[in-house]
Amino acid sequence: MSADGKKAASSWVNLAVDYGPLLVFFLTYRQFSPKDAGGVGAIVAVTKGTIAFMVATVIALVVSKWRLGKISPMLWLSSALIIGFGALTVFLGDPEWIWHKPTAVYLMFALVLFAGWMRDKAALKYLLQSAFPGLNDLGWLKLSFNWAIFFLVLAALNEGLIAYLKHQYPDWQVLLKNDRDPITPIWLNAKLFFVTPISFLFTFTQIPMLLRHGLGETAENEVVESPPHD
């Protein structure tokens, strides 16, 4: 395989490792979710979706090691929280744990990045284990700080959405006990079709700053293909 072919294959592997488990969660939940408002099986759908999410996360770790030759610290940390919060969701039969999982990931990464920034250390470089050719230390430091701020915004958005949905469905816990889950479908759609796109958009907005700090133009694709994620 040519160098370009290997690079393209690596790009697809990166995207599959980063976003494949979330897509598996979404598709599994959709497959097993009740087809009508009065149907049963909401808890079953969440449980099966969460188990699939956890299994896909472990597979992503294996694929990352196999095809990319490494597992980044960011992937290790996010995977640990996915499995931890996923296990609580499954064993307690409570989808609220999986709703708050992204918030825990975002806050953990923000804390690590801010702690590094305060010590003039670009923790993001370590977490991603990606080398953006030409990017100088100041560029890495600014990127770490910007992502720390963005992670705080994502955490606030996630908690704000959950609070809003609970307000819209004040009897959600009663409904859940009767195998009806009005919140998870909306939350999951927002996660996949809103949070993921704005994360990519935010990544694109960082490219001009990175170019000013030495990033080679040929490395732009690597920045887009290796964004921090939960």
From TrEMBL:
It is found in: Cell inner membrane. It comes from the Bacteria. Pfam families: IspA. The chain crosses the membrane at residues 12-32, 38-63, 75-92, 98-118, 139-165, 185-204. It is a multi-pass membrane protein. Its main location: membrane. Keywords: Cell inner membrane, Cell membrane, Membrane, Transmembrane, Transmembrane helix. Plays a role in cell envelope biogenesis, maintenance of cell envelope integrity and membrane homeostasis. Belongs to the YciB family. This is Inner membrane-spanning protein YciB. It comes from Novosphingobium cyanobacteriorum. The gene is yciB.
